[in-house]
TrEMBL record:
InterPro entries: MBL (IPR050698), RibonucZ/Hydroxyglut_hydro (IPR036866). This is Exonuclease. One of its GO terms (molecular function) is RNA endonuclease activity. It comes from Sphingobacterium paucimobilis HER1398. The lineage of its organism: Bacteria, Pseudomonadati, Bacteroidota, Sphingobacteriia, Sphingobacteriales.
Amino acid sequence: MVEIIDDFLVETALGYYCRYGDFYIDPKQPVQRAVISHAHGDHAVPGNMQVYCTAATAAFMQYRFARQKASVYEVKEFNVSFDLGGVEITFIAAGHILGSAQILMVFKGVRYLYTGDYKLQEDATCEPISYVKTDVLITETTFADPSVIHPDPVAEIKKLGEQPAHIMLGCYALGKSQRLTHLLNTYCPNKTVFLHHSMLPLHRIYDDLGFVKLKYEPYQRKALKEGKDKVYLVPPMTFNHYIRAKNVIRVFASGWKRLQHHNDLSLYISDHIDWSDLLSYIGRVEPTEIWTVHGDGLHLRTFYKDKMNVRNILRKI
């Protein structure tokens, strides 16, 4: 019987800290040693002295933080273990965006698996999720609610192919925009994809490091004023700024219902797990204990109350 250390990973003001290996996971502020699950802004910040991550995550961070104080990047391959302060660490594909990783930590024979953000849905633009057995699952719970069911993304994207007007499609620049570009290329081939200028460099990193060819064009001012069957991908700030844009159908791709309000068409495409996928994933990794982060673990605690211990990760002030 393994002996789980309750405070092996704790939440602090700086981020998730492992004092046994003296490193942080996805720190919120710069630290000496940072293990980064993926390059989204709520998981990766500039200024860390040493960064341990996958090659794609390093590429995204180096682009985004080019004007910040340089970090030393220790690039690691998936499924290849390395030692950090006596803790054995392995990056496991998370299926969230290109380069995204679950972080498996082994210490004194106990396996702790931090998921970061992850999804089980098929996505040709990034590595598919991998499954490893664990003793303690440290999972995000963004949509850990039985009422949340993510629809089939193919069926969702095909709704855009049925629209005769031009479409302004709001989405996040990293991960979501590349996935949407590929879905549009594949299932709405009549649509020409135009990109906001902020998305172009990230698409080019996907072109260099990714798995599928993305077809897109830089946005031109007159692009949506002529012809038909054009989709203009824009980041949230731009989408919100053009709240009264004319002659286009306004759509925002997200799993959140609140982000579908006041749009012309709903588009429920999420890069996170829903309740059903969460239960399926737990069944695959077979933890004996679950710690929750990034959301509300109440429904999980209720579901597993007679089967295993489920709690929020410990916090250290």
